[in-house]
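re: that chain from earlier
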Amino acid sequence: MNNKNKIKISSNRNFGFVFFVFFLILSFWPLIKGGELRIWTLIISVIFLLLGSINSQILTPLNKIWFKFGIFLGNFISPIVMGIVFFLVVTPIGFIMRLMGKNLLGLKKDNNKKSYWIKKNNYKTSMKKQF
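^ sequence. v structure.
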């Protein structure tokens, strides 16, 4: 089953309020550095506030485009972030463990062993009622 079908799009009201805050921050941002207020972004901010307050259907196409853009970005950003975490965190830990002589997964080949099967005598569960 495709997980993208389970993701629900946000309401037009929430979409309008989020973009209201975004454009409001953009309008006041130059004031931090001693600049002037951006009037055009303030106007856009007020428009999003009004449309979001009345839950206008005008925001529906913009909301859908923004949703699809988020899914599109997620398809690229998630693997990149996971790769960075793997190569900057997991891989160095694995190298350090090998340098310390640890073999946590038992992956080293041992010619003296007949089998790598691990016998377990005392089971914690009977596996009859798993759930």
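Residues 59-99 form the longest helix (41 residues).
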